[in-house]
């Protein structure tokens, strides 16, 4: 296909504004798949993605479209992940296309992710077509929302498409707008050396690693020998093709086209998003700009509640890692928790997704230890150590000083919630760098320690702003600060899984809060249980969980045997999710809940 007849685009939207429904409509109305194969939602395939309303794996589809002018066009829609943890992946996929449909629910208006996503599109120099969805709803106010788009985002919304992805109204206008208002690929020379962007990759049990590519220059053919310019890895190409949305082989992929390749690539780890693919011989000289390898920034321990499930956990983790290059793991042993894994993630949501998948798809109950960032420890003997796990904190007498990672956080929030956001950032040791306005929204920039953000910052931000804040961050570097390791002792036994690194000035407050929380989370036993927070052997906070007086079943007056049995069964089931520490049983959810700050 010549460049003039190709349109590559993404759909950007806030959760639930109708991105998937619109994508399905575009596919259906162009007969890309038969009615019979049309499932309710084609693009988001994984259950967890759907439940959490996020898209993890970028999917793509090639649509043939005959426009009103009678010309045949090839439209490539790429699907992008929608969360800050995957911000780099989103920014890369945006670079692989030239335009975006900005979908806004006409009954809701512009929301947090609308902004975050549309700014990524603007940064990638996209042409943007506003699409107001759900006009079938009585509460739809397309005029007001169009005005809001102009005010807040600053793009012209006077000729926005008014559609209902549900009923199909307006879909032909969207297709025409894609062809008429989005630009064709900007450049592309068939005769130049091959230059292709690695947009995404995933593991397929039949084909091995599948790589999604956008060809910039040159031509990719089956049988070609290719080279990844950043990693230096070389492969023979077995297959090339496009998604319709099922895989369809093609003879070649030329400039401007988006498609997939497979080769003898063993693991997704060898295919780095943003890498440049060229031919092994007569390759292009310079790789595409902007590549950065995505490295895990948050670490935590994952342990099976039932130690007999360790091998199952290993199996689950290995399988998940096959398909997720940014997830790392190594074996870990803990005095209290036994055998498990120390895992690295791109961020907290990434952690939660992996944890949920292990629990749900592999049916393994997990204990998750406190998430930690990587600290740089400068020892008195002049050496430098990277600390991934607070449990490994060396003896303080040998430590000279410690540095922690910092981020630059950008938060967009409606004016009425600004006060709460500033307080939250201040509470998390943030330093305000900027405060400006975009329409009725404030944009604040904070320099924050990453360790204050990894735990529940995002949850808190969403809750204090009722979901209206958008948040994005970048790592900026390391800075020295006064951090200490705080241990938690339950019945005088240290529970390593609850150890955290905290700022010295905030240790008492955090310690008190954790002890209070644990007092509520740990069920009462037949004896008194002291719960303490300590720094280097010195207790800084303490709570006491009083002893249980009677057996729970005593309440049942002996008479009702079935009720008694039920109660005992319930206790037993509850126990499955408990873990024994010395004489004390601690429920699984205590490990995460204790760390949340209200
Ligand atoms: P995520 O994949 O979770 O990010 O959401 P999404 O933006 O893809 O939204 P999705 O297409 O899943 O739609 C969200 C909900 O809105 C679904 O229940 C749809 O049926 C509904 N919906 C989508 N378009 C329309 C529309 O035009 N009118 C009405 N009434 N409902 C719609």
From TrEMBL:
The keyword Hydrolase applies. It catalyses: GTP + H2O = GDP + phosphate + H(+). GO terms for molecular function: GTP binding; GTPase activity; guanosine tetraphosphate binding; ribosome binding; translation elongation factor activity. Keywords: Cell membrane, Elongation factor, GTP-binding, Hydrolase, Membrane, Nucleotide-binding, Protein biosynthesis. It is found in: Cell membrane. GO terms for biological process: positive regulation of translation. Its EC number is 3.6.5.n1. SUPFAM superfamilies: EF-G C-terminal domain-like, P-loop containing nucleoside triphosphate hydrolases. Pfam families: EFG_C, GTP_EFTU, GTP_EFTU_D2, LepA_C. It comes from the Bacteria. GO terms for cellular component: plasma membrane. SMART domains: EFG_C. Residues 4-186 form the Tr-type G domain. It is a peripheral membrane protein. GTP binds at residues 16-21, 133-136. Required for accurate and efficient protein synthesis under certain stress conditions. May act as a fidelity factor of the translation reaction, by catalyzing a one-codon backward translocation of tRNAs on improperly translocated ribosomes. Back-translocation proceeds from a post-translocation (POST) complex to a pre-translocation (PRE) complex, thus giving elongation factor G a second chance to translocate the tRNAs correctly. Binds to ribosomes in a GTP-dependent manner. Belongs to the TRAFAC class translation factor GTPase superfamily. Classic translation factor GTPase family. LepA subfamily. This is Elongation factor 4. It comes from Pseudoprimorskyibacter insulae. The lineage of its organism: Bacteria, Pseudomonadati, Pseudomonadota, Alphaproteobacteria, Rhodobacterales. The gene is lepA.
